[in-house]
Amino acid sequence: MNQPLSWLECISCGEKYFKDARIYNCAQCGDLLDVKHDLETLKETVTLELFDKRLGGYEPWERSGVWRYKELVGPSFRHDELVTRGEGNTMLYPSPNWLAQYTGHANLELKHEGENPTGSFKDRGMTTGITQAKHLGAHAVICASTGNTSASMASYARLTGLQGVVAFPAGKVALGKIAQAIAYGATCLEICGDFDEAQHIVLEASQKLPVYLLNSVNPYRLEGQKTIMFEMLQQRRWRIPEWVVVPGGNLGNSSSFGKALMELHTLGLISRLPRIAIVQAEGANPFFRSWENGFKDFETVQAETLATAIRIGNPTNFSKAKRTIEWTNGISVCVTDQDILDAKACIDAAGIGCEPASAASVAGVKQMVENGIIKPHDEVVAVLTGHLLKDPGVVIDYHANELDTIAPNFINEIHRIDADFDALAAWVSQPEVQ
Ligand SMILES: *Cc1c(COP(=O)(O)O)cnc(C)c1O
Ligand SMILES: [Zn+2]
Question: pTM above 0.90?
Answer without folding.
Answer: yes
